[in-house]
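All the exercises in this workshop are built on plain-text protein records. A record pairs a protein's sequence with a compact description of its fold. Backbone structure tokens are a discrete shorthand for how the chain folds in space. Once this layout is familiar, the rest of the handout is easier to follow. As an example, a complete record with its sequence and its structure tokens follows.
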Amino acid sequence: MPFKKAGRKKRKKHPWEILWSRFLWERSGKSIDVVHLLMVNSVSLSIPAPCTHRDVVERVASCAATPILIESLSDNLHTHKLVRGQVCLGYAGDLFNQIATNYPTMRWWVAEQGLNMDIVAPDPVLSSFDALAGKLTAASWQNGRLSKVSLLEIAKELDTHKYSLRKELQPKHWRGIANYNQKFSREPITTFERAARNPSFVRGVRRRLYVARERFQKTQSGCQ
């Protein structure tokens, strides 16, 4: 009987990732008290018309079995006028998430000072090059710079993944290499390592790695 290949182990999703598509766990207090406050905190109330989503959020927070403090709510919640009364039955977390889904990029979280609900721009999507080069450069960053040894190590790793100089370097830096390759077609510079070893082109490689590092760190800042 053939052995079953071991697949890549999938990360187990937290309950709130399944229940609440708009919840920002990264910005919330990471304690069982916060989870309990949202998942099993019951709400049962009626809100007369006219009202706004902000009115609903405020009433749900204040009338929950365990009241929830509010730190900040988006002004956008004022813009949606509800002409009918609202009946809110269920758990606080479910109700907050339902309201957030009425707005394209609305997210919600519970920090130390209370509930927050606001428009949050989606994280920038990193290219595979920026993800790898940015991570390696950030890990090797010391005293505000990248050493020559680390630069060459990263260049070799990028060549292992077969990244293209032409596609990844900034146009002005690639043009210099392209002109060089026309003159010295028998020994063209086609790899990051060779470009990094050449005094005329190493600056372009460094600059591209620095850009990748900045982009990588921006994606990480939202997870602090």
